[in-house]
Structure formats: C-alpha cells, structure tokens
Amino acid sequence: MIIFARVFVILVSLIATAYPQTKLSDLQSKFNALRNFRVNFVQVQNGKEVLKGVFYYRNDGSMRLEMSNYEMITDGKTVWNYSKKQNKVIISDFNEQDASMLSISKVINDYPTKCEVTETTLDGKSGIRLVPKDNSLNFSEAFIIPSGDGLVGTMKIQSGTSLFEVRLSGYQTNIDLSNNLFTFTPSERIRVIDLR
Fold first, then answer.
1. So where are the chain's domains?
2. Residue of 18, 33, 176, 195 with fewest CB within 10 Å of its CB?
3. Whole-Å CA distances, 20 to 37, 49, 86, 114
4. Who contacts 124 (Cβ-Cβ below 8 Å, separation ≥6)?
5. At the top level of CATH, which class does the domain 2-194 belong to?
6. Distance between CA 193 and CA 196 in Å, rounded?
7. pLDDT by residue (tens digit) across 16-64?
8. Distance (Å, rounded) from C-alpha 17 to C-alpha 110?
9. Phi first, then psi: what are they for 132, rounded to 5°?
C-alpha cells in the first residue's frame, strides 16, 4: 500500500511537471479548479499487477484509496489505514510532509521545477520524459502518456531497480462525494490502533 501511495505522489508530482512550462500554469489552473475527482487505478511492478482500486480526491485535502482488502482514508487532519484482511485500523495524524499521505495539491503546485522535462515516444505513444534535477524525488526517470481527455493515462516510473507502472482510467470530476467517504468509524469488531 505504501508503494502505491508513494507512486501516486510521484505520479501527481509528474503531472505537475509533465508539460512544458508554457502549459504548466494551465494544468495547475485546471487542477486547482477541480472540486474533486474519482479515478480507477492499476499498479504494475516489474511487469506484475500488484494493486488496483479506486482513488477519490477532494480539494480540501480529503482523500480515499479503496482496494479489495485495504482502505486509506483522510479528511486532511486524520488518517485511517484499514486492513479488511486483518480486521484492524491504524489511526494517525495527517502529515503533509509524509509522501505516503498523498499531498497532491502541494506536489502539483510546488514540485514542477524539480525535473528536466522532455517530450518523447514510449510504447509507440507520445508522452513526456521526466528526470529529477537532484535526489530530492524518489525516482530516477519517469514517463507519462496522457489519456484521450488530456489527463494522465499511463505512467512508468523507474526507481532503483524497480519499474512501476500506474494506469488511470474512468476519471469522474466535480461529482457529488459525500463527507462520509473521507472519514472512518470502526465497528466494535475492528481492532483499533490509535497513534495520535
């Protein structure tokens, strides 16, 4: 799960840097104008599918990641990591500096200057190649292939000896997302570990 969270943060940082600087302000404006979104994801690591699920985002810092046996939820203040398989939830304070906490807005608005950005072709599709200017980001090289609607469709990230691929599909933007999606109230049967 932490791998997906880090990959997603990298993905979002790459969204912010994926276009030449002349288009960056348009992308930031588009992202900052979104109230929320829902997107399906599949993560592939070294050629093998390792995670899939649904990611929800709201511009107030609320996020939810749903997979078959795991959920990660935050309202921007508290984080709930719920393992269905282990029937337990770990509760902690939200920390915007922690990469696994998916600080998307900060990444999109603050990270753009940290990569060298070039246009390239990958797997026969036009895309963007990103190489960090220094060691402050958790990858050595990444490629973004936009979807038909201009959002990120596929991303490949080289980090050390591992190759991660994230495929995003079925974006739904500015939809009705209930506040209940971004909180978690454990039942009496769920073991609670509260680290706050």
1. 2-194
2. 176
3. 24, 31, 45, 13
4. none
5. mainly beta
6. 9
7. 544 445 445 555 677 788 899 999 999 998 889 999 999 999 988 899 9
8. 10
9. -60, 145
